[in-house]
Task: inverse folding
C-alpha cells in the first residue's frame, strides 16, 4: 500500500487476468500514470493501482458491514439465542487461526493479485447464496453457521494476500499511508454500512442487505482486474508447502524485532482488544444504560479509530514507527484500565475514543513495520503470522474476556487485561530495544 514516479507497465492482457507481480525481486509498484497533486494525508492515492483498489474497497466494505449487521439480526430472529450470535461470529474468525499459516505460504507461491481476485469472488458468491436462501424462505441457523465458517476460510486466505499486496501497489515509502487510508475506509464504512442496514432491514428485510453486499463485491473485483503490475516471477520454491511454512516461521523466530512485534500484537489481541466484546455488558450492567448509549459507545470507538488512521496517514513518513508502537501498546493497556474503572458515561466515551485511536495506531504500525522488515519473498508468510496473531487470536480473547467477566465482572476483567498489556509490552520492548530505532 512508495512514492516516486514509475514508468507505465501495462500487463500483457491489459488487466488483472494477465497482470503479473514480481516474486523474488523487489516489488515495483505500477506507476500512478498522470501524477495527481494531493496533500500528504492522501499520498498513497497518487498511485493509480492503489486508487483503484481503495475506491473498490470503499464500496465493498459498506456491503460487508451491512451483511454483518443483517446476519446477526437474522440469527437472533431465527434462534432467539445469544449463543448462536456468538457462535456465528466465532466461526467467522476460527478458520483464520487454523489456516492462516498455510494461506501465507500460498500467498508467496502465486500471484497475490490473482489470489485476491479468487477470494473476493468466493466471498461474493457466498453473499449471493445467503441472499438466495433468504429470498426463497428456506434459510436456517445451520445454513448461516456453515456459510459463516466458509466465509472464515475465505478470509483466512484473503487477509495475508491482501495485506502483503499493499506494498506491490505503492512500495515501501507510502506503505503506512496506504494502510492508514485503508483503515480510514474501514472505519468510515463502519458508520455507513450499519446505518444503511438498519434502514433496509426495516423497509425490505435482511435479504436485501445480503444481495447488496454481493453486488458491492463487483466494485472491488472490477478494480482488481484494472490493476496493472510488472510481470510476476515466482521465487524458487522449497520442496513442500510445509517446508515453505517452516521457512517463514524460522524467519519470524530468528529476527528479534519481528518476533517482539508479533508477540506484542498477539497479547493485545487476547487481552486488550476484547474490550469491544464487553461494551454491551458495561453499558447495561456497569453504567446502567440502554441500547442508545451502547450505540454511542460503539461510535466513540469508531470515531477514535478514524482519527488515529487519519493521523497516521498525514504523518506516515515523519513518524518514528518503532517508538510510536511502544507508546501505543502501553497506552492502550492504560486506557482499557481507565475504561474498566470508569462509572461515568462521558468518561467512558472519552476512554473509548482514545482506545479506538490507540488500537488503530497499534495495528497499522505493526502491519507497516512487519511488511517493511520482511524480505520480499517471505512477505506473504510474515503477514500470515500477523493475521494469526491479530485476527486468529480474536476468538481466544473473546472467550477469556467472557469467562472472566462472568466470574469477576466486566470492570475487573478490563483492568486485568489492561494491566497484562502494559506489563507485556513494556517487558517485550525493554528486552528488544532495537524496535524503538525502526523508522
Result:
Amino acid at each position: 500500500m512508495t512514492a516516486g514516479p514509475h514508468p507505465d507497465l501495462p500487463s500483457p492482457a491489459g488487466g488483472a487476468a494477465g497482470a503479473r507481480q514480481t516474486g523474488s525481486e523487489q516489488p515495483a509498484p505500477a506507476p500512478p500514470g498522470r501524477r495527481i497533486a494531493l496533500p500528504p494525508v492522501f499520498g498513497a492515492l497518487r498511485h493509480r493501482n492503489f486508487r483503484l483498489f481503495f475506491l473498490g474497497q470503499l464500496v465493498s466494505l459498506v456491503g460487508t458491514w451491512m451483511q454483518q449487521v443483517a446476519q446477526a439480526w437474522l440469527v437472533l430472529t431465527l434462534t432467539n439465542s445469544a449463543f448462536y450470535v456468538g457462535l456465528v461470529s466465532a466461526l467467522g474468525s476460527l478458520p483464520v487461526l487454523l489456516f492462516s499459516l498455510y494461506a501465507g505460504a500460498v500467498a508467496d507461491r502465486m500471484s497475490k493479485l490473482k489470489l485476491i481476485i479468487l477470494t473476493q469472488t468466493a466471498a461474493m458468491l457466498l453473499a449471493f447464496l445467503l441472499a438466495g436462501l433468504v429470498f426463497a424462505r428456506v434459510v436456517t441457523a445451520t445454513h448461516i453457521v456453515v456459510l459463516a465458517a466458509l466465509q472464515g476460510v475465505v478470509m483466512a486466505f484473503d487477509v495475508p494476500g491482501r495485506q502483503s499486496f499493499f506494498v506491490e501497489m505503492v512500495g515501501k515509502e507510502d506503505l503506512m499511508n496506504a494502510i492508514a487510508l485503508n483503515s480510514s475506509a474501514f472505519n468510515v464504512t463502519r458508520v455507513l454500512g450499519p446505518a444503511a442496514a438498519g434502514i433496509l432491514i426495516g423497509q425490505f428485510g435482511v435479504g436485501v442487505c445480503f444481495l447488496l453486499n454481493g453486488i458491492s463485491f463487483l466494485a472491488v473485483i472490477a478494480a482488481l482486474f484494472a490493476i496493472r503490475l510488472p510481470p510476476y516471477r515466482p521465487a524458487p520454491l522449497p520442496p513442500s508447502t510445509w517446508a515453505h511454512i517452516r521457512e517463514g516461521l524460522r524467519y519470524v523466530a530468528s529476527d528479534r524485532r519481528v518476533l517482539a512485534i508479533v508477540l506484542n500484537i498477539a497479547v493485545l489481541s487476547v487481552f486488550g482488544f476484547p474490550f469491544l466484546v464487553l461494551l454491551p455488558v458495561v453499558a447495561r450492567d456497569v453504567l446502567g444504560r440502554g441500547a442508545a448509549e451502547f450505540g454511542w459507545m460503539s461510535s466513540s470507538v469508531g470515531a477514535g479509530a478514524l482519527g488515529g488512521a487519519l493521523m497516521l496517514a498525514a504523518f506516515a513518513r515523519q513518524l518514528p514507527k518503532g517508538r510510536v508502537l511502544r507508546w501505543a501498546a502501553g497506552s492502550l493497556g492504560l486506557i482499557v484500565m481507565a475504561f474498566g474503572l470508569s462509572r461515568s458515561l462521558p468518561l467512558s466515551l472519552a476512554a473509548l475514543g482514545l482506545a479506538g485511536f490507540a488500537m488503530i495506531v497499534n495495528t497499522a504500525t505493526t502491519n507497516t513495520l512487519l511488511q517493511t522488515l520482511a524480505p520480499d519473498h517471505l512477505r506473504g508468510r510474515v503477514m500470515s503470522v500477523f493475521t494469526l496473531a491479530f485476527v486468529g487470536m480474536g476468538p481466544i480473547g473473546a472467550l477469556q474476556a467472557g469467562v472472566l467477566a462472568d466470574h469477576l465482572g466486566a470492570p475487573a476483567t478490563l483492568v486485568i487485561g489492561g494491566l497484562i498489556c502494559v506489563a507485556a509490552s513494556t517487558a517485550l520492548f525493554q528486552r528488544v530495544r532495537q524496535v524503538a530505532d525502526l523508522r
In short: DSSP finds 15 helices and no strands in the chain. Confidence is low (pLDDT under 50) at residues 1-35.
